[in-house]
Design brief:
about 325 residues, 7-stranded parallel beta sheet, 5-stranded parallel beta sheet, 8 helices, about 25% helix
Length: about 325
């Protein structure tokens, strides 16, 4: 049977992790479908239909799914699940909220954070903060899984011409109500999909000092991240957090500044293509995974780096 991908979107555009999740779905079965549930989201369905690996798009346009609350979305997934071998969503805040609830309603065991498809019923996922990999096989007729987007290439956004099929809503169970949200107004790239990330840790000493990180990040066109220690200390908001309990990133360049390299942080960024570490402690664990390391005081190194970037026109 086919594989269903739950699209992550804002009713106007598909979010980047959806494309990676489609790639994972196509490795399970080449009959990959995408579910677009939302309100006034026809443009999203059309974008999903254009993805080269997608064979069909299911469109559910209903006010009940405007904000894609897990309590409303889960019954919809279960109502569609019988026609699929697997239902996939990105392993981010959206997927981690939705998929456990849907799996429980379907009386199935959810598989979290898969990063490799071995066969249609066997998958590899990280355990122990990424220090070990578990190969798991599921006997469930329909498998509910979240996908580590950084482990799969993004599917081609164009080249497809999948049919869009309007599908009935499962209705709103009335278990939760959307109240509001606070959206960050920053103009930097989204952390999870940025090509370059500059992150600061406890060594930044205060939130005010994060301007040094931001100055360098802005010159590199980078997103700003942080370790859990920096977030817990109140230096920056928790949507900056990179790590096991934060966001998983795999940019082309990751610059870790004042970050010791605790295992929980490494789990969120060690798949980065190039890792640069700046830390005054030459024994810091971050240097064990870094491609380039600079043993220096960050309060000297960052201003110097900013000046050098300015010299080359960045």
């Amino acid at each position: 049977m086919a594989v269903l991908v739950v699209a992550e979107h804002d009713n106007a555009e598909l979010k980047d992790p959806t494309f990676n999740t489609v790639t994972a779905a196509a490795e399970i079965d080449d009959d990959a479908h995408v579910l677009v549930a939302g309100a006034g989201c026809r443009a999203v369905a059309d974008a999903a239909a254009a993805i080269a690996a997608v064979r069909k798009v299911l469109l559910v346009d209903d006010a009940a799914y405007e904000h894609r609350l897990a309590e409303a979305m889960a019954p919809l997934l279960v109502s569609l699940a019988d026609g699929y071998d697997a239902v996939l969503a990105p392993a981010d805040t959206f997927g981690k909220d939705l998929m456990p609830r849907a799996a429980a309603l379907a009386d199935a065991a959810q598989i979290s954070d898969i990063q490799e498809v071995v066969s249609p019923d066997t998958f590899v996922r990280p355990i122990y903060a990424g220090n070990a990999l578990a190969t798991v096989r599921s006997p469930d007729a329909t498998k509910f899984m979240t996908v580590r987007a950084t482990a799969f290439a993004a599917a081609e956004a164009t080249g497809g011409a999948a049919p869009v099929e309007e599908t009935a809503s499962a209705g709103d169970p009335g278990l939760s109500t959307y109240v509001g949200s606070e959206v960050s107004g920053k103009e930097r790239p989204e952390l999870a999909s940025a090509r370059v990330v500059v992150s600061g840790g406890r060594g930044m000493q205060s939130g005010d000092n994060f301007r040094l990180i931001e100055n360098v990040a802005d010159r590199l066109g980078a997103a700003v991240g942080a370790s859990r220690a920096a977030v817990d200390a109140g230096f920056v908001p928790n949507d900056y957090q990179v790590g096991q309990t934060g966001k998983i990133v795999a940019p082309e360049l990751y610059v870790a500044v004042g970050i010791s390299g605790a295992i929980q942080h490494l789990a969120g960024m060690k798949d980065s293509k190039v890792i640069v570490a700046i830390n005054k402690d030459e024994e810091a664990p971050i240097f064990q995974v870094a491609d380039f390391g600079l043993v220096a005081d960050l309060f000297d190194a960052l201003p110097e780096l900013e000046k050098e970037l300015e010299k080359i026109g960045l």
